[in-house]
Amino acid sequence: MSAILSVQNLRKAYENGFEALKRVNLEINEGEILALLGPNGAGKTTLISTICGITLPTEGTITVGGFDTQSDFRAARNLIGLVPQEINLEPFEKVINTVRFSRGLFGKPRNDALIEEILKKLSLWDKRDARINELSGGMKRRVLIAKALSHEPKVLFLDEPTAGVDVELRKDMWDVVAELKATGVTIILTTHYIEEAEAIADRIGVIRRGEILLVEDKERLMAQMGQKELEVQLSAPITEIPASLATFELRLNDAGDAVIYSYDTQGARTGITTLLNAISEAGLVLTDVQTRQSSLEEIFVGLVHEAETDNKETGNKETAA
């Protein structure tokens, strides 16, 4: 699979010295869905804006479909569709005219059949003659997606596309995203709904303070970094974990009727058999055993926390030096 988007040593700095992007390197393959996760202020929107030409880079190169976004901007930008966070639409224009106009901005010939297809996919066809100011927030966000698709882009950026959208509309949007991927469109999305990234993305990227912490296949990331938990249900609640079980570093649930054991799925031995025998020897009677895999959200929080800790330790060492 070839890379359709390549970002090399991308840096964005402002006059006050603030670095929004710090030597970002990123390659995105044709036809994949990459979820870019990061806390507020991490640089997600700045990265997207710079790739799309809204913000000029301080250093580095970006190519889309082989076209340099600086020296061959028009060719590169024609391949990109962007759904921004902000809803910025002409309030008194009709939906269908808004989408047609966006297609015309890219020099594309009028194609009413295509516009109808896009509006129907996004459940906007019955609203085609409605004015923008008559739509709900969720429907306006759908219009943004329709605008971004109107010129048939090969790369689609979705910057928090489901913010403020109800659950039903959100599900419809992801169905559309899945259909686009099936046609070969490359999709890069940012989202605060990490469960969505877990459900739909092929790869996960994590960005923090303008730096890419990792870009990894979703399944591999969860296998390598995810912990599993074994929850052992007890026949009667206990107030504290017996001293004989201290080496297992167990946690007691809030109700006191279960102990929780974390283990590495990649380890040669999990220690589960030894634990269950030790629980029995401690006089505890188990009634049920359940396992649970760490979610992507837990992995993400752990990565960001680890990076914060490393930075603090580095800062302390530099200060001490």
TrEMBL record:
Q: Does the keyword Disulfide bond apply?
A: no
Q: Which InterPro entries match?
A: AAA+_ATPase, ABC_transporter-like_ATP-bd, ABC_transporter-like_CS, ABC_transporter_ATP-binding, P-loop_NTPase
What GO MF annotations does this protein's record show? ATP binding; ATP hydrolysis activity
Domain of life, per the record? Bacteria
Ordered alphabetically, the record's keywords are: ATP-binding, Nucleotide-binding, Transport
Where does the record place the ABC transporter domain?
Answer: 5-234
The answer to whether keyword Transcription applies is no
Which CDD domains does the entry mention? ABC_DR_subfamily_A
What Pfam families does the record tag this protein with?
Answer: ABC_tran
Write the protein's name. Answer: ATP-binding cassette domain-containing protein
Q: Which organism is it from?
A: Tritonibacter litoralis
- Please name the taxonomic classification of the source: Bacteria, Pseudomonadati, Pseudomonadota, Alphaproteobacteria, Rhodobacterales
